Amino acid sequence: MEKDNQRQDNLTVSEISIRTQIQPGNDVRPQITQHVGRLRLPEISDDDKIESLIQLIILSVSFAEGEQNGIVATSGVVETVSGLMLTLCGAVIEVIQQRGCETGEQTDWRTLLSPIVSLLFNSDEKISEIGKQSLLKAIVQNAEILHGLLQLGIFDEASDLLNLTFPSQQTAQQQSSQQQSILPQQVLLNILEVVEKIIRQSEESIKKTDKLKKSAERIKQLKPPRQIKSILNSILSILEDEQEQDEIIQRERLIQEELQQAHEQVRLAQEQVRTAEQAKIKTEERVAAVEGQIQNKDAEINRLQQIIDQSHVISGYDASWSGGSHKVYFHGGQDHKAHVHSCERCNIHFQGGQDNKVHFQGGIGSKVHFQGGTDLKLHFQGPENCKMHFQGGKNYEITLQGSERNVTIHGRPEQVLFTQ
């Protein structure tokens, strides 16, 4: 018992030595060579050899490519039958051989770390402690090791170990019949300490902790030993903080996406408003153009109407024709006088009007049209083949003097007076 305590003290000294000697970036080859040399000395005690082996395990994951040749020869130099010595020697040789196989290639941390993880889960507390210290130091020296540990499924294996150590009632009945061995509490603490370190150092690890989290939450309710409960609370606290942080990040991402969608909707709405405004402007321009055309047409109509109105109110017009062929139209007005002398095929058309006078003297084939109108006087003096058309009207006075031949009258106005 005294010797075991002394070894434990020496192990603590070894840990201190490891912390002081192993520094990132140092050349590990001289240190490996030194410890390999110590292992060959027969006068070196097992405790000293254990110290060297511990450091060799840590140094073996740190040496550069090509340095493995200086320590390969260490296999077989240990002549003790100590289980601890044999386990550590095997781990050293396995790690070194793996590093030697990876010369010129990318390091396979999953395979490289497997023997050290086996040390961590070893039922021997000292070996487990060595595995823990080796992994903790390796994690600090090289962040790539975290990915290799996750690939090894260290979280699920730790969860299984927790469930085995603190089983549910149903699982406990099954274990009683199977009589499965349970690891010492210190080994479980070593494993949980490494698990906690990985969770703190690796964001990637959060995605692989579902099973571990469920086991930790269940076991915490069973009132486990104080140390176990403390580290489980620490692990759960980290996971909850990370989960809250992930939820915050996720909410922020969703808010950002919603803001982007809202900005896009606003942009589309503004584009639609802009398009509608442009269409409205074009429509208003077309309406204005049509209104302008209508105004122009109305102005033209008004202008023509004014001309017509002006022609309707003409009065006191006196016209005289001698010979030739003429056409005369009287629209409204009053006191018009038309004198036709020896004209052929003259056409005189009265539409409305009053107090108008027409005098035919000679001529052949003249025509007179009366449409409405009142108080019209016609005097035919010797024309031939004359035709008169009456459509409405009244108070006409017609005198035919020497016009017995071919004077045709169509229609009869009211109150007409013929004199021959």
Q: How would you sum up this structure, described in words?
A:
It is a single chain. This protein is an alpha/beta fold and 420 residues long. It has 2 domains: 2-171 and 183-246, Leucine-rich Repeat Variant (Alpha Horseshoe); 326-419. The chain is built from 12 helices and 11 strands. The chain has helices at residues 2-21, 29-40, 46-60, 83-101, 109-120, 125-141, 144-151, 154-165, 169-178, 185-201, 210-220, 226-312, and strands at residues 318-322, 327-331, 337-341, 347-351, 357-361, 367-371, 374-381, 386-391, 394-401, 407-410, 414-419. The strands form 2 sheets. Strands 1-3-5-7-9-11 form a 6-stranded parallel sheet, with no helix packed on it. Strands 2-4-6-8-10 form a 5-stranded parallel sheet, with no helix packed on it. The longest helix is centred in the middle third of the chain and has 87 residues, at 226-312. The termini are far apart. Keywords: Coiled coil. Residues 252-307 form a coiled coil.
Topology:
Blueprint: H1 2-21, H2 29-40, H3 46-60, H4 83-101, H5 109-120, H6 125-141, H7 144-151, H8 154-165, H9 169-178, H10 185-201, H11 210-220, H12 226-312, E1 318-322, E2 327-331, E3 337-341, E4 347-351, E5 357-361, E6 367-371, E7 374-381, E8 386-391, E9 394-401, E10 407-410, E11 414-419
Parallel strand pairs: 1-3, 2-4, 3-5, 4-6, 5-7, 6-8, 7-9, 8-10, 9-11
Keywords: Coiled coil
Coiled coil: 252-307
